[in-house]
Amino acid sequence: MSCPRIEVDLSKIRRNTQTLVKRLGPCGVGVTGVTKAVCGHPAIAQAMLDGGAVGLADARISNVQRLRAAGMTGPITLIRSPMLSQADQVVQSCEESYNTEILVISALAAAAIRNGSVHGIVLMVEMGDLRDGISPENLADVAKQVVQLSGVALKGIGANFACLNGLGPTALQMATFCDLANEIESKCGPILKVVSGGNSANLPWALGERATGRVNDLRLGEAILLGVEPVSGDRIGGMHADAFTLVAEVIETGAKPMPSPSARIDPTTERLRIVKTGAASARMILAMGYQDTDIPGLSMPVGSTLIGATSDHLVIGTPRTPPKVGSEVRFQMNYTALMHAMAAPDIEVEFMCNPHTQPTRHSQGKIDTLALV
Ligand SMILES: *Cc1c(COP(=O)(O)O)cnc(C)c1O
């Protein structure tokens, strides 16, 4: 197996999805699996669908095209406002997209007419995150314009929290968002199919005491992939936090003095020379660096400390005898590290267990019913 590599346990991604689907289902909330952190990797997307996700969503059209090229025919929503320059590609590969600009929506309408299709529009509402979104006062106005355009159909509204300001939604914000759904329906006519309340940061709200009201969808990436709630960073009970493991190879071992402050020439390397002198007695260098992942987002092996990293080297202090040159060291990743590693050209993605073959191992005695593809 090549190094560095990401080992992916698809059964954990499937089970994480299943757990969330089961918890949210009774509240009337479906799960849309968000694949942007894994660059629209088709096998990971499939594991989300196998776990009960009702559809997929991604922020980039290139990732959606990768899913389509792999034969995914189910609904895929673009959850970042489309670029005006990509209107044709958006209507060709996505059933629906999240939108905030009427200029873009008009371009999508024209593109859909050229394509002989009708493109679904979900209007993103600004509910306090201060990233993208139409302000609630202007929402009905934009919705009316969408309803009048041919080539597009108003499918719903969406909110987003904790992306720019790092704050999860309050019950009051969610209640206001639900009221907006009712208001748009009464002013514009069509029943909103999608009332999408937000992302993984909505889970404490959705799984809490209060009713989830009109919200019938959450777009979940981080919670499914890493089993954590992004605002607190807490693990979600019953979820797997180790579906992904990053593996790198040791290329040098031995002791060296700690880098002195005068050696800090490059600000990017300085940033990481954070270890107090004397913290580690031995060290190892791994063939992996900033080119591959967001180094501060890695959890170090127990007892080891991060000394520093450059574009291609990762220097780790270890209190024990370091592993031999040629051996492998394993890391868990946070969301940013995962996202960078999945996009790195030199990192292989390897699957530890295939969701389609795994059940066959547990199905001894039922061989007759197995459909071997
Ligand atoms: C990334 C993203 C999501 C998923 O966020 P997670 O925190 O990974 O669940 C949902 N909606 C939008 C608009 C996003 O950009």
From TrEMBL:
Co-factor requirement: pyridoxal 5'-phosphate
Keywords: Isomerase, Pyridoxal phosphate
Record-linked Pfam families: Ala_racemase_N
Alanine racemase N-terminal domain boundaries: 8-224
Protein name: Alanine racemase N-terminal domain-containing protein
